[in-house]
Inverse folding.
């Protein structure tokens, strides 16, 4: 079976037919499935969609049980957690719904971890890290675009000279380079390439 368009988060099952991994959807399995919007809802109280998955958390005064339900807890209500809590050996701990969040100094609210600046996030070749609340994603560097070639997605150089997205002067020639371009004034003209006289 061959899938000319590729299956980003899935397997090719037949001619251009993808079987998506759990948590993903779309013709090429490139879209995150929002489990929080499914019927019946996967969480009893609150649901947070994550890349390829989801997290359940409970309203204040309730704690998350191992089966994903929320049980009333007087001890939880007293702690006043932002995203619910759990009881471990008689100790109440507040929870954060994502690994990209950490408990703040007050031990009740969750603050974002900037994976891009802490170096926790590793983006592959020609990609840059974009931080989001509770997570991050990798985006092509400026001057590169995401293309599906030879069976995988990769960031390839944009040829600004061909796509006509350069700002070279009318009397200059455009020279493409990896991730960028240069302008050079034609013979008989002088200047930066953006201005030629």
């Amino acid at each position: 079976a061959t899938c000319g368009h590729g299956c980003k988060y899935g397997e090719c099952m037949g001619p251009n037919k993808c079987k998506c991994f759990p948590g993903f959807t779309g013709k090429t399995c490139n879209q995150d499935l929002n489990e929080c919007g499914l019927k019946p809802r996967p969480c009893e109280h609150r649901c947070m969609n994550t890349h390829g998955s989801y997290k359940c958390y409970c309203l204040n005064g309730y704690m998350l049980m191992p089966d994903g339900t929320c049980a009333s807890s007087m001890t939880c209500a007293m702690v006043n957690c932002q995203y619910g809590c759990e009881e471990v050996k008689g100790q109440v701990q507040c929870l954060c719904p994502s690994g990209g969040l950490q408990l703040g100094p007050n031990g009740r609210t969750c603050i974002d971890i900037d994976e891009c600046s802490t170096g926790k996030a590793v983006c592959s070749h020609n990609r840059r890290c974009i931080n989001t609340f509770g997570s991050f994603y990798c985006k092509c560097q400026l001057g590169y675009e995401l293309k599906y070639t030879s069976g995988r997605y990769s960031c390839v150089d944009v040829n600004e000279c061909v796509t006509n997205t350069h700002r070279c002067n009318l009397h200059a020639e455009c020279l493409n380079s990896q991730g960028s371009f240069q302008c050079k004034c034609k013979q008989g003209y002088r200047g930066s390439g953006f201005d030629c006289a």
Remarks:
- The helical segments are 74-79, 115-118, 160-163.
- The CA atoms of residues 142 and 183 lie 18 Å apart.
- The first strand starts at residue 10 and ends at 14.
